[in-house]
Write a structure and sequence with these properties.
This protein is mainly alpha-helical. The chain contains three helices and two strands. Strands 1-2 form a two-stranded parallel ribbon. Helix 1 (22-37) links the parallel strand 1 and strand 2 (42-45).
Length: 100
Amino acid sequence: VPFVFVCMLNEGIFPSAKVRDKREMEEERRVAYVAFTRAKNRLFLSDAGYSVADNNQLATSRFIFDIDEKLFVKKGEITPEYLQWAKEYVEIQKQKKHLI
Protein backbone atom coordinates (compact mmCIF):
# COMPACT_ATOMS: atom_id res chain seq x y z
CA VAL A 1 0.00 0.00 0.00
CA PRO A 2 1.66 3.26 -1.03
CA PHE A 3 -0.10 5.54 1.45
CA VAL A 4 -1.62 4.82 4.85
CA PHE A 5 -3.74 7.23 6.87
CA VAL A 6 -4.36 6.59 10.57
CA CYS A 7 -6.75 9.11 12.07
CA MET A 8 -7.96 9.85 15.59
CA LEU A 9 -4.76 8.79 17.33
CA ASN A 10 -6.00 10.02 20.69
CA GLU A 11 -5.94 8.45 24.13
CA GLY A 12 -9.30 6.81 24.71
CA ILE A 13 -9.87 6.32 20.99
CA PHE A 14 -6.68 4.62 19.79
CA PRO A 15 -5.79 3.07 22.14
CA SER A 16 -9.38 2.53 23.17
CA ALA A 17 -10.68 3.60 26.58
CA LYS A 18 -12.04 0.04 26.85
CA VAL A 19 -8.57 -1.47 27.26
CA ARG A 20 -8.51 -3.19 30.64
CA ASP A 21 -5.12 -4.84 30.93
CA LYS A 22 -1.61 -5.10 29.48
CA ARG A 23 -2.59 -7.87 27.08
CA GLU A 24 -5.32 -5.72 25.52
CA MET A 25 -2.98 -2.72 25.34
CA GLU A 26 -0.39 -4.81 23.54
CA GLU A 27 -3.07 -5.90 21.07
CA GLU A 28 -3.91 -2.22 20.42
CA ARG A 29 -0.19 -1.53 19.98
CA ARG A 30 0.10 -4.45 17.55
CA VAL A 31 -2.80 -3.12 15.47
CA ALA A 32 -1.12 0.32 15.36
CA TYR A 33 2.19 -1.27 14.35
CA VAL A 34 0.55 -3.22 11.54
CA ALA A 35 -1.16 -0.07 10.26
CA PHE A 36 2.03 1.99 10.49
CA THR A 37 4.23 -0.55 8.74
CA ARG A 38 1.90 -1.09 5.76
CA ALA A 39 2.84 2.27 4.23
CA LYS A 40 5.34 1.88 1.41
CA ASN A 41 5.72 5.57 0.48
CA ARG A 42 4.19 7.67 3.19
CA LEU A 43 2.36 7.31 6.50
CA PHE A 44 -0.02 10.01 7.68
CA LEU A 45 -0.94 10.13 11.38
CA SER A 46 -3.45 12.52 12.87
CA ASP A 47 -5.13 13.25 16.14
CA ALA A 48 -8.05 15.46 17.08
CA GLY A 49 -7.77 18.45 19.36
CA TYR A 50 -11.29 18.25 20.77
CA SER A 51 -14.20 15.86 21.02
CA VAL A 52 -17.19 17.22 19.14
CA ALA A 53 -19.54 15.14 21.27
CA ASP A 54 -18.62 16.70 24.61
CA ASN A 55 -16.24 19.54 23.64
CA ASN A 56 -13.40 18.14 25.78
CA GLN A 57 -9.75 18.43 24.83
CA LEU A 58 -8.28 15.12 23.67
CA ALA A 59 -4.75 13.97 24.39
CA THR A 60 -2.51 12.66 21.63
CA SER A 61 -2.12 8.87 21.63
CA ARG A 62 0.81 7.26 23.40
CA PHE A 63 1.49 5.50 20.08
CA ILE A 64 2.53 8.80 18.51
CA PHE A 65 4.74 9.63 21.50
CA ASP A 66 6.47 6.27 21.04
CA ILE A 67 7.79 7.36 17.62
CA ASP A 68 11.15 9.12 17.43
CA GLU A 69 10.37 12.74 16.58
CA LYS A 70 13.16 12.75 13.98
CA LEU A 71 11.14 10.32 11.86
CA PHE A 72 8.17 12.56 11.12
CA VAL A 73 7.14 16.04 10.07
CA LYS A 74 4.59 17.84 12.22
CA LYS A 75 1.93 19.94 10.56
CA GLY A 76 -0.02 22.56 12.44
CA GLU A 77 0.82 24.27 15.69
CA ILE A 78 1.73 22.11 18.64
CA THR A 79 2.51 24.16 21.71
CA PRO A 80 4.99 22.98 24.33
CA GLU A 81 2.21 23.38 26.92
CA TYR A 82 -0.07 21.03 25.01
CA LEU A 83 2.69 18.45 24.59
CA GLN A 84 3.45 18.53 28.30
CA TRP A 85 -0.25 18.21 29.19
CA ALA A 86 -0.80 15.34 26.72
CA LYS A 87 2.26 13.40 27.90
CA GLU A 88 1.21 13.86 31.55
CA TYR A 89 -2.31 12.71 30.66
CA VAL A 90 -0.93 9.55 29.03
CA GLU A 91 1.19 8.79 32.11
CA ILE A 92 -1.84 9.22 34.39
CA GLN A 93 -3.84 6.84 32.20
CA LYS A 94 -1.04 4.28 32.28
CA GLN A 95 -0.84 4.43 36.06
CA LYS A 96 -4.61 4.40 36.48
CA LYS A 97 -4.92 1.16 34.52
CA HIS A 98 -1.50 -0.23 35.55
CA LEU A 99 -0.45 -0.32 31.90
CA ILE A 100 3.09 1.03 32.21
